[in-house]
Sequence to fold (183 residues):
Amino acid sequence: MPKEAQITCRFCKKKIDKSTAFKVGERTYYCDQECYDKQKKKSTHKPQKVTKSGKPNDRRRLTDYIMKLFLENGYEKSQIKWELQTAQLKNIMNEHKDWTNSQIQYVLKYMYEILGLDLFRNESNGSVLSLVPFYFNEASEFCIKSREIKKEVENFNFDDETVIIEKRNINNRSSKEIDISEL
Ligand SMILES: [Zn+2]
Fold:
């Protein structure tokens, strides 16, 4: 009797018989529906780094940033409740249809890096996204201001005494400026 062809489950990496495997598409196999569902769940918060067209994937950059926040605040990767994060992200974007992944990332950066807020206090209910809707406008204003300051600084004539003083102030204000060119 010929030996049955074996393949590897995409999710749990177990060797399984090809004939009884749960097949998705042309050549993707899973043990069963359960492994397939688990893989799907896993990949919903792990988008590719680049989109099909080769552009950086904004959703991935946002989830990477969320992960960075957790890791920098003493959490392990396994402690991040991605179901909660993605559900909340979905809610926010349903309520504010014009908000993009990049903008939400900017608001998080603004709260964390500029304001120095503790995004992990009890009121956030385990999600760093809880405060995003409350700081969106403030962050947008900061973003616009930062752009203007950047432009002003570029246009300064550094020979002028008064301008140099002004420039110093502006430098203080924008010393923690985050990279807005990413938006
Ligand atoms: Zn499996």
In short: The longest strand covers residues 6-8. The chain has two domains: 6-44, 58-182. Residues 6-44 form one domain. Residues 132-155 form the longest helix (24 residues).
